[in-house]
Design a protein that fits this description.
The protein is mainly β and 375 residues long. It has 2 domains: 25-189, Bactericidal permeability-increasing protein, domain 1 (Super Roll), CATH 3.15.10; 237-372, Bactericidal permeability-increasing protein, domain 1. The protein has helices at residues 2-10, 144-165, 216-232; strands spanning 14-18, 25-28, 34-38, 44-56, 58-63, 69-87, 99-119, 122-131, 136-138, 169-170, 196-197, 200-201, 212-214, 237-240, 243-251, 254-268, 273-275, 280-284, 287-310, 313-335, 342-352, 355-360, 369-373. The strands form 3 sheets. Strands 13, 14, 15, 16, 17, 18, 19, 20, 21, 22 and 23 form an 11-stranded antiparallel β-sheet that branches. Strand 19 and strand 20 form a beta hairpin. Helix 1 runs antiparallel to helix 3 (216-232). The radius of gyration is 26 Å and the shape is globular. It starts with a helix and ends with a strand. Residues 1-17 form the signal peptide. Keywords: Signal.
Length: 375
């Protein structure tokens, strides 16, 4: 899910815009009058007297070339929720006290959907999925599980209400490069047109079916949303694939064969990721490739069990590795030429790091710690 979201945030070279900045739009969400949330293994709370409001200034719709995939951006948006909370099964208990809870969020609301032609020259957007702003605050008595449920209700509300508001898009609305939104520095080279933004003018000398986009602010925005998703969906630990590799080395006339196996490995540290280099998007036909440099300030790799057989050595134990200030270079592609619209991680490399510390068990009291400072 995170990989797919990161990809859709980058590929938006064509745009139509439906703007009305004269006043802020208001959505009064129709949500259950009361609902129950499990906040711990043994504790539930009832939420009642609910009010969920969503406000936004305007809606921008971004269209991928050659596909029906669209991105939706609600600019100047805010979400407000208020209700009362009481311990479950205690509504009729006079000794129980209801508490007022508040939650709000401000910023861009992002989403994607599918553009479908209803009749000749007319389109509708269907199958919405929204991501809420990462900038949020709540009352001190607000449980994390309750916030998750509020966010879910807000997303469902948006999917229903925005589909009502964007009922009909005509073919005349689908103007390519009608506007470049203020997402920071955007440079476009296209065989379809020549774009001049931020004082930079660059026109191709010959027709080519390719372009480049510098979309740093888009990636910064998506990274912020991804970090929020990692926290909300408790994805801080990523499972690593088990390893089963054969080791072969030649020592003079003798050959030594071994085997290493790892089990139940995890990786932690994605919540510290940030962009460290410019984002470059390349297009070749309907295939898009994005490359960028990223940094992770602190990463932890845990291997719950490893087995090593090498010559006369036969050991097993656990591995804990910590890495500081990792620099990564990644390249991702989306190929719309294929029916499955394949998203592929083309390349990922660790270009440098400040310090690597690895601790082993199973080696006895000595040689349990290895450090590799400064690459």
């Amino acid at each position: 899910m995170i990989f797919k979201y990161c990809a859709f945030m980058v590929f938006l070279p064509f745009i139509l815009s439906q703007n009305d900045k004269s006043s802020q739009k208001l959505i009064v969400c129709r949500i259950p009058e009361n609902f129950q949330v499990q906040v711990s293994d043994r504790y539930k709370v009832d939420i009642y007297g609910n009010e969920l409001l969503i406000k936004y200034k305007n809606i921008d719709i971004y269209l991928y070339p050659g596909t029906t995939t669209i991105n939706v951006v609600l600019n100047g948006s805010s979400i407000e929720f208020q209700a009362y909370m009481i311990a479950s099964n205690s509504v009729s208990n006079s000794t129980s006290k209801a508490e007022k809870i508040l939650w709000s969020s401000n910023g861009l609301i992002l989403g994607f959907g599918q553009l479908q032609e209803t009749n000749k020259g007319h389109y509708q957007v269907q199958q919405y999925h929204f991501f809420l702003p990462t900038n949020s605050s709540g009352s001190t008595n607000l449980f994390e599980a309750v916030e998750h449920e509020i966010r879910r209700l807000a997303r469902v509300c948006l999917e229903i209400e925005i589909s009502k508001n964007i009922k009909n898009i005509t073919k005349n609305n689908l103007q390519r490069f009608e506007k470049i939104n203020d997402f920071g520095s955007v440079i476009v080279l296209s065989w379809l047109d020549c774009i001049n933004t931020n004082g930079i003018s660059s026109c191709p000398s010959s027709s080519t079916n390719s372009f480049k986009i510098n979309a740093n602010d888009l990636i910064d925005l998506s990274i912020s949303a991804i970090i929020d998703m990692i926290k909300v969906y408790n994805l801080r630990k990523i499972k690593l694939p088990n390893i089963n590799a054969v080791l072969i080395s030649n020592l003079g006339v003798f050959g030594v064969k071994g085997q290493i196996q790892t089990f139940n490995g995890t990786f932690e540290g994605l919540t510290t990721i940030k962009r460290t280099a410019d984002v470059i998007l390349l297009r070749q036909g309907h295939k898009y490739t994005v490359s960028c440099g990223f940094g992770i300030s602190n990463a932890i790799v845990r291997i719950n069990k490893y087995k090593l057989k090498y010559g006369l050595i036969n050991i097993c134990g656990e591995i804990l590795g910590t890495i500081e200030n990792i620099a990564l270079k990644a390249e991702i592609s989306v190929d719309y030429n294929t029916p499955q619209c394949i998203i592929k991680l083309e390349d990922i490399k660790i270009s440098e790091f400040d310090k690597l510390e690895v601790r082993f068990t199973g080696l006895g009291d000595e040689n349990t710690l290895m450090e590799y400072p400064n690459n």
